[in-house]
Amino acid sequence: MGLFDKLFRRPVPPGRDGGAFQTLTAYSPIFTTWGGQLYENELVRAAIDARARHISKLTVQTRGTARPRLQTRLRKAPNEWQTWGQFLYRVSTILDMQNNAFIVPILDEYGEATGVFPVLPSNCELVQYGGEPYIRYTFSSGRKAALPLKEVGIMTRHQYKDDFFGEKNTALSGTMGLINMQEQGIQEAVKNSNTFRFMARLANFTKPEDLAKERLRFNRENFEHEGGGLLLFPSTYADIKQIEAKSYTVDAEQMKLIQTNVYNYFAVNEDVLQSKAFGDAWSAFFDSVISVFAVQFSDVLTRMLFSERERVTGSGIDLSANRMQYMSNADKLRLSNQMMDRGVITRNEVRAMFNMPPLPAEIGDTLPVRGEYYNLGQDASKNITTGGKNESEANENEPEPGIPDNGDEPAEKQ
Fold first, then answer.
1. What is residue 36's predicted lDDT score, i.e. its pLDDT?
2. Which pLDDT score is estimated for 11?
3. How many angstroms separate the CA atoms of 293 and 285, rounded?
């Protein structure tokens, strides 16, 4: 049994269906993989990879009490072939390349979901069968499969005309054409710099075949052998001139504009691509790219794997990230100094910022509030420390009100 049979256990609905599923717009509910070969371009691949690498570091968390077996499986991995990091990386890459990412459930023999898997069909369409919308996939191998639309997860970008699918990346075709022509221009410029071309008037030759033979002889004797840099020719040649080829290439400023078009399209910049984004630059990238992906992914998987009643009771899938890990060391130190002694974060949360192992819970999960005051325990109870003594010990040694603790008799009232 192959991967296709494991993912699609149910047969394709027969042909006697209601045809294409009617949407609100006149746009046909059909998605076809775009053949623009964006991923073969170095700059585009770097931009897509930068987004996918950071998205793959998100943490998948389950919540609620519904479907405990499924939640237990998902805490470990999305399926038996991938880790969550690999799964998120591929979903992000497919989404950026196709503006559509399809996630299908993996079902056991009882029809219960046991995991999820991202698929990359070459074509898919919405069809109606039994009064319900189905999404029918066609893969590059020619095999087809169909699943109810409500059981499938669809993530989209640039969704406009279609009610279910995102637009193609044809808006980037002009920029990709400029990049391609620039690369070809550079290659031709390198070739021309190593080539000598001459133009001359040749007398006493009237037949075309004689001219061709003379051109081959001249090239062979002057350029194909070691000539010492000396060009020799008989008096039959006149008006000899060297042809200097001038290849046009885009200057640095224009090339920068072309690259900026790619950066704008994928919401990245050079700092993100070169792993130099920290602090505010990283926060801006997180808010504009990673958090948007996380919200849509969480919503899609929650709707896909849990019923409406289960979602109402709080069950679902979440993506989260420790944004503090991506701060600079100076920012981390300043944040920990200001937040830890005010009882906002714990010692273990500070250690996580610096990629350090956690302390035992009774020590690391407490909330310190300025050492001279008290610590908040996990249950928010106070544990006052005074001179190395806890609150109860300190209270036992405190004198009762009105009784001096120096052994003297109470002073008489005046």
1. 52
2. 53
3. 12
What's the token pair of residue 228?
Answer: 């010492």
Residue 374 has pLDDT above 70, yes or no: no
First to last CA, the chain: 101
Tell which residue, 194, 187, 236, has the closest CA to residue 211.
236
Query: What DSSP element (H or E) covers 129?
Result: strand 123-129
* Tokens matching residue 172: 């980037």
Place of tokens 């499986």: 73
Question: Is the pLDDT reported for residue 247 higher than 70?
Answer: no
Using alpha carbons only, what angle is made at residue 335 by residues 329 and 336, rounded to the nearest 5 degrees?
90
CA dihedral 166, 168, 174, 180 (to 10 degrees): 130
More confident residue, 15 or 305: 305
Q: What are phi and psi of 100, to 5 degrees?
A: -145, 135
Residue 406 is encoded by which pair of tokens? 């120096």
pLDDT digits (tens, 9 = 90+) for 37-48: 677 788 889 999
pLDDT for residue 301 is more than 60: yes
- As to burial, measured by CB atoms within 10 angstroms (0-12 exposed, 13-18 middle, 19+ buried), residue 401 is exposed
Instruction: Tell me the β-bridge partners of 126.
Output: 135
Record the tokens describing residue 242, joined without a space: 């060297």
- Higher pLDDT, residue 300 or 235: 300
What phi and psi values does residue 194 have, to the nearest 5 degrees?
A: -105, 15
The set of residues, in sequence order, having a beta carbon less than 8 Å from that of 139 and lying 6+ positions away, is 4, 119, 120, 121, 122, 145
Judged by DSSP in three states, 304 sits in: helix
Rg of the chain over CA atoms, in angstroms? 35
**What average pLDDT does the chain have?**
76
Q: How far is CA 119 from CA 30, 225, 226, 327, 380, in A?
A: 16, 58, 60, 35, 47
pTM, to two decimals: 0.68
